[in-house]
Each structure stands twice: as C-alpha cells, then as structure tokens.
Amino acid sequence: MRYIIFGESHGAGIGVVLEGVPAGLPLDMEFVEQQMRRRAPGRAAFATPRKEADQVTLLSGVWEGKTTGAPLCAVIYNTDTRSKDYSRLKQCPRPSHADFTGNVRYAGYNDYRGGGHFSGRLTAPLVFAGGVAQMLLRQKGIFVGAHIHEIGGVKDDAPLPDQWESALFAPVQEKDFPVFSDLQGEKMQEVILKAKTEQDSVGGVIAAGIFGLPAGYGGPDLRETAEGILARQMFAVPAVKGIEFGAGFGFASLRGSQANDPFYYDEKGNVRTRTNHSGGINGGITNGMPIVFRVAIRPTPSIGKPQETVNFETKTTEMLEIVGRHDPCIVPRAVPVIEAAAALAVCSILEQTQAPVTWEGVEI
Amino acid sequence: MRYIIFGESHGAGIGVVLEGVPAGLPLDMEFVEQQMRRRAPGRAAFATPRKEADQVTLLSGVWEGKTTGAPLCAVIYNTDTRSKDYSRLKQCPRPSHADFTGNVRYAGYNDYRGGGHFSGRLTAPLVFAGGVAQMLLRQKGIFVGAHIHEIGGVKDDAPLPDQWESALFAPVQEKDFPVFSDLQGEKMQEVILKAKTEQDSVGGVIAAGIFGLPAGYGGPDLRETAEGILARQMFAVPAVKGIEFGAGFGFASLRGSQANDPFYYDEKGNVRTRTNHSGGINGGITNGMPIVFRVAIRPTPSIGKPQETVNFETKTTEMLEIVGRHDPCIVPRAVPVIEAAAALAVCSILEQTQAPVTWEGVEI
Amino acid sequence: MRYIIFGESHGAGIGVVLEGVPAGLPLDMEFVEQQMRRRAPGRAAFATPRKEADQVTLLSGVWEGKTTGAPLCAVIYNTDTRSKDYSRLKQCPRPSHADFTGNVRYAGYNDYRGGGHFSGRLTAPLVFAGGVAQMLLRQKGIFVGAHIHEIGGVKDDAPLPDQWESALFAPVQEKDFPVFSDLQGEKMQEVILKAKTEQDSVGGVIAAGIFGLPAGYGGPDLRETAEGILARQMFAVPAVKGIEFGAGFGFASLRGSQANDPFYYDEKGNVRTRTNHSGGINGGITNGMPIVFRVAIRPTPSIGKPQETVNFETKTTEMLEIVGRHDPCIVPRAVPVIEAAAALAVCSILEQTQAPVTWEGVEI
Amino acid sequence: MRYIIFGESHGAGIGVVLEGVPAGLPLDMEFVEQQMRRRAPGRAAFATPRKEADQVTLLSGVWEGKTTGAPLCAVIYNTDTRSKDYSRLKQCPRPSHADFTGNVRYAGYNDYRGGGHFSGRLTAPLVFAGGVAQMLLRQKGIFVGAHIHEIGGVKDDAPLPDQWESALFAPVQEKDFPVFSDLQGEKMQEVILKAKTEQDSVGGVIAAGIFGLPAGYGGPDLRETAEGILARQMFAVPAVKGIEFGAGFGFASLRGSQANDPFYYDEKGNVRTRTNHSGGINGGITNGMPIVFRVAIRPTPSIGKPQETVNFETKTTEMLEIVGRHDPCIVPRAVPVIEAAAALAVCSILEQTQAPVTWEGVEI
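Above: the input entities. Below: the structure tokens describing the complete assembly.
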C-alpha cells in the first residue's frame, strides 16, 4: 500500500489516493467515519470551534461496497474556509509553523492560506487511509490502540506496557478524551483550558500499542526495520517531534539486567517475554509481543500571545499576534491520527517482509 | 546514494556497496580510517577486548584516488572469529538480542554465530559509507558532530543546543571518550566499569548536531520529511530505541509560548530563530538552524549475569549465562556510528528534495 | 515526479495525483486541454463515436495559476456511461482484453464495466500528467514529438531519424491524423475504415523523438538506464507491446561498421554523431542526439466479429460478439498519449540522474 | 530481491550484492557456474579469445550451503587485465560505446579502461544473481529458456511460440551455440566468422520464454506491468536496444481478428488461449500462457575497421582503429544473460504483485 495525500487547507479539496489495497475488502464506512469524527474539530471546549464536515467522497477503487484492487481516491471537498484570516502570513511567518520553511522550499509559490498543504487538516485523509488499513489488519487479528500519555506535565494512569493487551484499549477509544483515567483526563483538560485562557497552547505525548502482529516481521536493514518504518510514518504527522519504543529514552538509566526481556514458553507453547522493555521489536523484527511506542507532540504553534517574527517585505523584525480559531492542544484529536498512521506503517512492515519467510512458504 | 550492507559476524567478510556517489570525489582514506578506529573495539577498558583490524579493501568505484561514479564496494575480511563461543545460541536465544526474531524471520537458516548479520560489527561498513557521505557533505560546508549526552543516569555538561555550532564539536571528536566535560566523562566511565565488574551493562543517549544545512530541504510528505529520513536511518543502527528532535519529549511540558522559536534577521540579513526548540526542522523541512537530535541507546543485551530464556530443543525455560567478550556499554563506540548514519541521512534528504526548489532553478 | 492514476471507466471519476512538481510552474491549461482533445474520442470516422468531455477539475497543487509544490490532483468526473453495454463481461472475458487477467488478479472483485481500471479511458489523466511534464520540459528546451509510423502495413513517409529535429514535428502535431505524409495518412485511414466495415480492427507503430535533452542523463544500472525508464513508462500505456530505440530490431541485420554512429565536432564545438542508429542513448546514457524510439500498438481487441471465449458460469467455451462503440484503430488517438508518457519518462530520467554530475556541480 | 552490481573491467574485482533472497534456499553452485560458463568468453572461434576464469567468491548470505536471508555478496576478482590496450580511449571515444556518454555523465572521472563499469564483463555478476533467481523460481515450477532467434539476417528454425513449452528449451540450453536448428546455427556462425575476418561485427535477436508462471501476476499501473518490469531489466543488459512481447511489432500488420487469442478450457478446466500473440500478458498481468519476448542486440561496437571519432585533446575529428580482443558477435554469450535477467525480473513481478491477490489470501 502506497498513498499520496493531496490538497491545501483553502483549496478546492483535500484527499488521498491509496494504491495497493487488496481486492474484495468490505469497506466499513461507518468505522472510517467514526475515526474521522474522533479527529474532527469543533467537538469540545479544548478544540477549535471550526466546523469541518469532513464528508468523504469516494471516486474510485470501491464497487458494490468492496475494494476493486484499483487505487482508491477519497476526496473531502473544502467548504468552511475563511481566507481573510490568513492574509498577513504572506509577509510574516508564524514562529515554529511551516510558513517560513514552506516559503523557502517552494520559493514563495506555496499556498500559505491556513497553512496550505502543511495544515493539520491534511490529517483527515490520513485517517481515512489509516481506516482502510485498520480494516485490513482486523481481518488478520491485528489491532491498534492509543491513549493520551501526557499533556502539559499531567500523565495518564495507564496499565504498565508489560500488561497491555488489545481489549484494554477498546473502551478508551470510545471516549471523547481518550485516557485510561478520567480523573487524570480532567486534570489534563484543566491544563488545556488554562492555556487557552492565556492565549497559549500545550504539548503532550501519545502512547500506542499494536496487538496481534506475529513474530518475524521487519528486518535489520535500512528499508525494513519495524522501528524505522513506524518512525518515518509518525514524522509525517504534523507536530510529532520524537518517537521511542518500549523503554525508549528510559534505557539510558537502566542496566542490561533490568532492561532485557527474559523469554519463557506460555501455556500454548509460544515464546513470550516476561517484560516488554523492547517494545515488541528486536533487531528490527517483531518478537510477537505488543509493539509499544510513544510519540512526542509539540504545543500548537498557533497562539494568541504576541510573538517576535520577521517581515519579508520590510525586512524587519516585528511582533505578531495570531488571530483565528486554533486548538490550544492538538493531542486529543491526534490520537486517532496516530492510530491511523500506525496501521499504515504496519501494512508497510507486512509488505516489506518480502512475502516469504522462507522459499518453502511462498505461495504463487 | 543508496547502500546495501552485507556480511555476517563469522562469515568470510562484511562490507557495503554504495551506489550514487558523485564522480570525482577525492577519497580521504585517512579520514575514513580514523572514523573507523573511533568505532573499533579493543581500545579502552570500557570496551570489548576483541581486536578487529577493520582493514578496508576497496573493490570498485575509486580510481586514481577519486570516485568514478560507479558503485563503491568496500570489504572488511573477517579474521579474528571464535565460533566456539557461540555454539549454544542455536538452542537458547539471548534475551533482547535478535537471536529469537532472526530465527523466526529466517526460519532457522540465519547464521547465528556472533549474531550473524545482526552483529554490531556490521556498523563498521556503515561507518565507511558514512565517511564517504561526510566527505561529500564537507565539500558543501555541512558537518556532523555528536557527543555522549548521558550514560547510566550521568549527563554530559554540554552547551545548550541553542548555542551549538560546528566548531564546538571538533575537539570532542578527537577524544577517546567523546564528551564536552571530561569530569562528567569520568563519572560515566565509572558507571560503565562498575557495571562491567557486576557482569552487567548500561545504556545511554547520544546527542548530535548537523551544521551548515541550508533552509528548504525536506518536505511534509511521507517520503521526504527530514525527521523521518533521519529516524529511519537511525533505527537501522543496532540498539537505537528512540529519537527526538529539538525539545523532543520535553515538548510535553512546554507551553507554545515557551516552545516556539521566534524569528529575527541576523546581521547578514538571514532569517534565524532566537531559540532552536524545533531542532532545525519545521513542517518536515530544514529551517537553516542546526539540526539537533538525540537517540536512545539500550544497554548491551550481552551480559554475564544469569538470565531466563527458552531452549528450542527441550522446549523448556532455563537459565543462560553469556560468556565471551562484550562491551559493557556500546555508547562511546556508537558515537561515530551515529555521525556516519546522520551523514548518510543528510545525503538522502538532499536527494529527496527533488533537485529543483523551483523549476527556474533546474540546471540540466 | 511520481504519479498515481486512479479511476474506473464507469465509476464516479478518473484522475491522477502528481507529486514532486516543482513550485512556480505556470499551468498552461489551454495546452493541456489541447493535448487531451487530441486523445479524446468522437472526433473522426475512424474513432469511436462516444463523446467524452474530459473536463478536468483541479483539486490541489495549483494556486493563482501556478504550481504550489504540493501534489496536484486532477479529476475527470464520469458522465456518459452506459453500464448496460457491459453486463455480459461478467461471465465471458473478451479475448486479449484484461477481463480475464483482471478477474484473476483481483479475484473477481474488479469493476469490469467498460474495462474498469484497464479502460483506455484511463489514458486521459495520463495525458494531463504528461502535459504538466511537457510544460516543465519546455522551460528547459526539451520537446517531444510523435507521428504514426505505420498502420496495418501502411507506413508514413517520414524524414530519416538521422535528420530529425524538433521543428519537423510541430506541424504534424496540429493534424487530426498525425503523419508527415497526408497521402500515406489517407491510405492508413482507408485501412482503418475497411477494418471498421468488417467489424474488425488494426494495429500500428508510433515513432517518437525527444529533442533538446543534453548528453549525460541516465546511467548503466538497473534503476537508471534511459531506455529502461522510457520502456517501463510505455508499457504502462494500454496496447503497447514493444519498444525499440534507434535501429532497434533492425540491428539484427546490420554490421557494426554500418550500425556505429561516428563522432564529429559540429560548428559550435559540440560532439555529435553523423548517424543516429543508437537512438540518442549509449550505455543507458543520453548522448545529446535526439532520442528516437518506436512503440508497437496492438489492434484494438474489441471487435464485432464473433470470437471464441469461455463462460465462467457454464464452464463452457462459446462464441462472443462484442457490441458497443469501439475504435477500429487506437493508434491515432494514442499519439498524444505516447508523447505524454515520453515527457513523464524524461522527467524521471532527469531526476534519476541524481542531481550532481560531479560533486563540484552540486548546488544546495 | 534487489541487487547492486559493482566493479569495473580493470579494477580489483566485479560482483553483486543481492538483497531479499529468502532464507533456506539450497545454493546449487554447480548450476550457477554452468550458467556463468555459458556466458564466459574464450570458448569458441566466434567469441573473444580472452580467458576470464569468472571464479566466484561468496562473502556473505550463505551458510552451510543454504541462504541465510541476509544479503549475498558475490565477488569475481579480476586477474587477466591488460591496461595498456586501452590507453588511447582517454582521448578518443569509441563510436557507439559508452566512452563518450560515460565521460560526460561522470565528468571524466569514470574508469574508462576496458569500458570500466560499462564493460560487458559486468554481465558475469548479473548471471550469478540471475542464477540464484532461477534456483528460487525452479522451486515454484517456473523456468526460463532462450535461444538465438536471428543473427545477421539468418533466423533459427524454431517452434512457433504458440507451441512453446519448457521442455523444448532444455536441449537448446546445453548447446554451445543455443539454437533449435543446428543447420541454421552453422549459417549464423558463418556470418559471424565472415564479419570477424573483415574486422567487423554483427547483431541479432534473442527470443525467450518464461514457463510455469500462473495467471494473475503484474498489474496495469506504472510500477507493476509485467512487460515494464521485464523491459526495464532487459535494458540494463548492455547492447539490448529493443524488446517486444508476443507478436510485438508484427501487430502492426495484423487485424484484431487475427491478433486476438481465443480462450478455451483445457482438459484440466484451466482457462487457456488457442494462440499466444499476447505473449502471455494482458493488461500488464500474466494470463497463464508462456511469456514470450524477443530482444534486439546491437552489433558489438568494438570493431577493427577504421572509424571516425573525435579527439578530446586536439578537438579534432580523426580515424580510430580499435585493437584488442573482442567478440565479433555478442549474441551467443548473451543468451544466458537474457535468461538470468528474465529470472530476476520474474522475481520482481512476483514481489510487485503485493502478496495478496485478495485480502482473504493473505497469510501472516
């Protein structure tokens, strides 16, 4: 499966073309739309009040409710756009946004309105594509789940990754604010609302698990490490600035005797590990335990507080106050995006492990 | 530039084929060999006493001291191998090594002696390839530097990333133990030697900077984000389990007003940022500031302490004591490997930003 | 530049997403629409009488008349579709069409109506994408031209490839029936109309030239040979079954002394060849002469004459008569498709020759 | 399976790294060496008298006689090289060789001795890689066979492609001069020897069949057409200047009613076609019939006859007489190269048809 996401925030539409989807997959649009609603803005006080219908139009690749094997093209036509909000961006790039780098990269020809192709709105087609991937993975017993691990210093009270299993995440995914502990969730929301009141924003961390992926997928070389494929996909999600697997950066203060995951045979005779500090991957290859990873999400760069920036026309440094409708914290809406991206990455890992584990197993 | 690393720890040799190196690049073998010596084992008490000459034989792609434009093949023939050390691995996989996943992935046909293709020894050809990349980048004024950020809870006393520049790293790279503060370095070495005495190992964090890369490289889409290309390359280095850019996971406890990097014009009229929490990248595209990132390195899984594992033959769980010559901490030797990998990734970023920034700039 | 063509003949729409187009390219829609009209059906007695507006809607990647650097998505919504014509295809595959192979490849889930994703109609978005490529190439002084070389045994009376230059093709491209000799063109049309009358079809050969591409593009290795990139692109055009460069299959009856192209210096001091049997490519690399190639086009498989086929339901062999509106000869309409495909391939060749010819020439 | 071929004619060695070979494949070196002997020079009057041992050294990827799943590196160290023969090439490029284009592409830094990386000698590692591919395919019942279709106007007397089957090619492959009709083979050899006597060379055509590949592999889109993958691979073989499938360029003078391949059920209930003008491929997808294709091979450009060329130093046009040991006709030695290349391409086609035909069939 390969995809190209297209569109700009204030253009005619945004969407995705998804190539390599196997034929005959029943398309559960109810599921996909539910995932998209979880990502959509305008649902809560801690999100932007913009209303975006995110209505998907399928142009190709599905017939009589099932995939045809030809590329899927899904389009979300833009409706609620207010171009006037963004006119000043032409001269003054917003700090830590892609206004400046986009201007350099595309020599000033990029559509800067609302962030253009860099807009967080482009994660809507990503959730669509990931939804198709999730449907495909479910057929194989593979599930993806994520929760808010931390926002503004407040951490969720979640089960230890060593105990993670797929069923734990089902109730979390049904919540508006996807945390294990609603108490901690409320504290996080307070942090967000306080930042909002102060015209500011906050960042966070999302933790995710991939369940049901058997041992033996991935590889040690550049193209194929399971971590590398997941990481590359995650960094294509705006605002992601870090990723760690298993104990991750915590390995720095662990001894090998603490960090290693001892093997044992479970009651079914499968090899398992007592702990899961490796996050389900050794040598770039899945070991059959859940894949556990966390991604760091930067605070929304769009804040109302005055900030220093440059003016391309006057060539001077000046102060900028961003007006408009923005999320004080993107983390809650990013949870289904991370799930979608993880599902797409798992499809890549499955494909990258060139069909045969051994030549004996090749079916043609 | 594309490469394939080949070889197994106890096979005839290891090496790399590197394709796409521009013609006419003078090959500074002195520089490459120096980088390889920094990685080589046997130099200090905190490293494995194995002696590996790591003598490189060039089979192709270089003529009269310059690259020809055809693929380079560099081979390091294996000499000091003791196969008997590893005979027990056939039955009992070492916890958190790739013995188990390699066995599953390759259906038991992998060469498990000394870790085979998963051996840390395979980073020697990576350093060679990265050395060629570093030579190429130097021609363009791009430099890569790294230091030990943390080992076993002890942190280096380094300049703030906001003040990083290329010149700071030159003296660090000449040290056997690449830290800014030798005092902190000594504390780290104590931690390592203590672990060694206890038949244990420790992990750490390496911090790296890429200097001189102009704004405008990379992009927002899957194939081209600067973070994604760097991350994918880093996870192809054994033992790397996390990567973060700029403030990274620290973003979770920052407000937007703290995290954003204000723009200003420097004395030469270039756009710069006051701080560098973004780590030199916005929207997947370089912003002209140094690229700053850190990678988490897990403790060496090879420890002398007894560990629980499975026995494939008896199908029972039993205790394993790993004998042999192992690094109690791989972090110091991994510093030049991370530099090499970063240089290869930067070459990919340069290439991925499909030649033209605009069509006007295309030279054919 | 990478693209994915999507859509099915009788679905909601067809189109293309084109990634990697440099920013700032003025989009000459008049030119693109003209190319698409050349391909469109319904213009002449020798073409299908179906009317397809082929009206392009641009969803992204263009703003204020210029490319933004983000992916372009161009959609042609389907309007004139008559599904009832195709109902029998479910049971009986049309000989030498993709009905059977599509059924196997996609396990019966492919949208077979009108050929679905295999329909020649999918060449409309290809012409759009190629039109963008042609605009880009024109900025660099590179032009593509093609003519009908042969139809049903009748050959065009064209200048020898050794004398080809860009200007020769301009008048041919303005003709409804793109040949050099209108006399020969009339004979070809007679052959086509005769076949049409007899419920049959005819094949042919298209010859093409690429002008203005300097020496030094391409390479000897798998990914990069100029011939290989062009060939791969041509075989993605339905009905193409062969490609030859320069003397091509004629080399089989030539001596080396006849086939070799002697070098000389022209008045400007450029190295040129007296003849162009090599078709502008040596060792997979352009030599600065026009690239000359020919592609074989099979007769339209859709014919009214009764043909033997199988019935998937009854598991018997039976006779099939295809009704509906079909081209008795696809060759004239395929000429702009071949030009479009050639332009896309040239963009790939330019990109594949990884930016630098030497490291000295790399601009960053 | 991906590979990089490395080496230069007069460097230290040539070879190939082959990535993605499934683990556990028994390596039949006898078979591979036999294929390499068929390609090796010095065996007959119609070939160059150079002796090249082509002794393969395996550096990695094979252990205890079976592939390990890690990349294979095979090296042929150069021994019999006479650099003095080639000193004049620095100034005067040989017509229709890659001397000129290589000089431009690599800015004069290419190793021009003996053609360097462009040398036909680089087909030796290609035959090795293809030999591994052939072993893999044999496990699945897929065979590749080729014969000399034509040399210098003389054609082999071969069975019609409609009757081709794998068994027909076994005896041909055992011949020094791989033709069906030894009588025609003798005439071809006369043509070759006459050209040799006259210091000239001749070209030809090789025809090949791929047997046992089931229906359903390949696809209609750019990356995946069976013809495009085969063509791209063939054009990476030096001297190949054309490829056609089935009736190929002959389609130009056929009616649809003649060209179409009628379907029928064979006695086992499989769908087959009465004829095979499509060469086993429809819509870019295999139809279960043998894949039939022909490639055009240009006459060896190295001829003793005086030829006009340029002198880079004097900037004048002058006459060149090539001395040295050259094949008057490369076609007989190219037969196993085409077989090897075809096998590699088939592996790509199998992989490109992303594992599942339908999601139901995916095994993980």
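Note for the figure: The first helix of chain D runs from residue 29 to 39.
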